Amino acid sequence: MKKTVTRKVSAEKATTSPSRLIDAKIKELGDWRGDVLGRIRALIKAADPDVVEEVKWRGVPVWSHDGIICTGETYKAAVKMTFAKGASLDDPSRLFNSSLDGNTRRAIDVHEGDKINETAFKALIRAAVSLNTSKKKR
After folding, report:
1. I need a surface site. Which of 1, 16, 26, 101 has the fewest CB within 10 A?
2. What angle do CA 44, 26, 88 make, to 5 degrees?
C-alpha cells in the first residue's frame, strides 16, 4: 500500500499570492541573483502584461500565459530561465545557452555580471506567448 504524505501549510502561506511569494524569494536571495531575477521578472511583465505568476516545485517562480512560458530557478552560480517550449522558438540573438540538447526545453543561464539583452529577451517572451496561444486555438 502506498503511504500518503501530507504537509501542513501555514494559513499565511496558503493565502499568500504567488506574486508575493516571488517578491519574498527575490528579497530572501539578497544578492546578485535576486537582482537578476527581479530584472528578468520586470522584463517578462513588460513583454506580456497578461502574464500569470505562479510558484511551483518547492518555490520555483513560473510565468504562464495559456501554458508555461518559463521558470526562474536560482542556483549558487546562476539564475536559470528555462523556457518550457524553447526548442520550438526562434532565437536569432542566441540567448539560449543551456539545455540545448533537449527536444523541448531551452534555458538561459545568467551569471553574476552578465548583461541581459533586454530587447531580445522580451522578443523571446512574446514568441513563447504566441506559441502558447496559437496551440490553444487549435
Report:
1. 1
2. 35
Q: How many domains does the chain have?
A: 1
What whole-number distance in Å separates Cα of residue 80 and Cα of residue 27?
Answer: 17
- Which tens digits make up the pLDDT trace of 37-86? 999 999 999 999 999 999 998 889 999 999 999 999 999 999 999 999 99
Residues 6+ apart with CB under 8 A from 107: 80, 81, 82, 83, 86, 96, 97, 98, 99
Q: What backbone phi and psi angles, to 5 degrees, belong to 22?
A: -70, -40
Q: 3-class SS at 114?
A: coil
Strand residues in 1-138 grouped as ranges (E): 52-56, 60-64, 68-74, 79-83, 106-110
Residue 7: pLDDT over 80? no
Share of the chain above pLDDT 70, in %: 87
